[in-house]
Amino acid sequence: xxxxxSFLRMAxxxxxxxxxxxxxxxxxxxLGARVLGSAEGLNRRVQALLSPSSAMAKEYSEADISPxxxxxxxxxxxxxxxxxxxxxxxxxxxxxxxxxxxxPAMLSIDDLKKLDDRTQITxxxxxEGWSAIGKWRGTQLSAVLDHVGVSDQARFVVFHCFDExxxxxxxxxxxxxxxxxxxQTLLAFALNDQPLPIPNxxxxxxxxxxQLGYKQAKYISRIExxxxxxxxxxxxxxxxxxxxxxxxxxx
Amino acid sequence: MNAHSAVDTTTSVKPEPSKASSxxxxxxxxxxxxxxxxxxxxxxxxxxxxxxxxxxxxNLYWGNRSDQGxxxxxxxxxxxxxxxxxxxxxxxxHQVTTTGVLGVSKGSDGTPVARGFPSWLTxxxxxxxxxxxxxxxxxxxxxxxxxxxxxxxxxxxxxxxRDIWPTRADWRGIGRSILDHVxxxxxxxxxxxxxxxxxxxxxxxxxFIFGIGIVLMGVAMSPRMDxxxxxxxxxxxxxxxxxxxxxxxxxxxxxxxxxxxxxxxVSGVFNQLRGMITGYYKVDPIKPEPVTPVVVAQxxxxxxxxxxxxxxxxxxxxxx
Lengths: 251, 320
Fold this sequence. Notes:
The complex is a heterodimer of chains A (251) and B (320).
Chain A: H1 2-28, H2 30-37, H3 39-50, H4 80-87, E1 95-99, E2 105-107, H5 109-115, E3 118-125, E4 131-140, H6 141-148, E5 156-166, E6 169-176, H7 177-180, E7 186-191, E8 194-195, E9 205-207, E10 220-226, H8 239-242
Helix pairs in contact in A: 1-2
Chain B: E1 13-15, E2 23-26, H1 30-55, E3 59-60, E4 73-79, E5 85-91, E6 94-97, E7 103-106, E8 112-115, H2 129-156, H3 159-164, H4 168-172, H5 174-182, H6 197-219, H7 223-235, H8 239-266, H9 269-277, E9 280-283, H10 293-301, H11 305-310
Antiparallel strand pairs in B: 1-2, 2-9, 3-4, 4-5, 5-6, 7-8
């Protein structure tokens, strides 16, 4: 009986081991990863169908704000350009907006405030699973897009950042024009009524109401309007996307 | 989902040529068998990839936020005085050392590493969140579409209404059914073809509470879907509550599968497996109506009188 039991246990463990080893081989094969990744397109289309592009993320009350808004990823960019701006409390900071636009611009935080000034208390959902709620003040990205005039060929907004994740690998992100024009898509310069802290992305970061944390680029230096992001980074539309995460981060 | 699923109402009886005394009944239709095994694969891979995703932040909370110190469940790693990694599982205020399995377990090079669930319970085995998400979302679609097909097919064929929805007679038999289960007593004749009340309740809960619940709680974690599902998210307490409930239902599925496989093993594993693979389930010949099931059991267990005379119990030292 105990022989049979240990045989069954061995057989069971062997089956699980073979299953997991098989899964690992599929994960490492290009085809396997592509087939599994095909669900992303389905997620994006079905979610757009069920949750219209105009639907708003829930806005919370002051009482719901997290005591500590956990900063993830880079918390102190060490590039010389960033260090120089930081030494002067970001007073010389200017956001560069270019690419497929009619009027490229350099915008200070004050310029941005004049374009639009909006405050929202929204939830931040990290791909790792945790959530935090913060009060963001910033400028609607749509106001910036209107200011520079987006060309008809532009399909994506790319956010270039000061922080480098690896040697010559700056953080970057991208969203489509529709998400960029959503009313809750902000270029945020304040968190919880304070100037944006350095660990949270000073002086300017992106807030998108309905996508995961890695889309919310921090330390933005430049916004570029493009028709395709194939030639940027590894061509997947963002630093984490280049590491295998989904470009569509709605789930 | 149901190893004894789909007692088809249009059963065709096929006499087995070798043994005229027992019959093979066509019990599970082909669509049900296919959907059952697709579900086995999808649920297994979703559990393993789900634990991979959980490992990215091996803490659970109630509410909308993940405030540090407010975890109700946490699988963490600490260093002891000698600098060794110690795995700690914390539930509420209680904590246990679970080094080797939870919190800290062997990495790919054999040295202990901090990780919630061990590599032999995750897909992929190494810590790889992006790939775990791909597996999870791919098989989530398989699970959902397969589940919808099952519900649609079962409603159309009246399988749900006739075989799974409890009748008044089923409810009346609940006491006997519980007693039969705790004694591991299973009907073998034609009675085995009919689901008892506990089976019906188990299958109904798994399909409509666990199945629908886990999908809804998964979708409630999606920030895009929350733009329209916020009333549901707030109804369960918040996004972190949804994550906790998703996790709990996943383990409820595991508990169901453990009991389900156990019942298959004790009620004739070969016959049950044949039923869910080929569709044919063997039914014992119809016996004359027994007075009560207990009498039958005693009669079957009655010792051979010659054996008892030759080996008196008191003289056998092994029995002391």
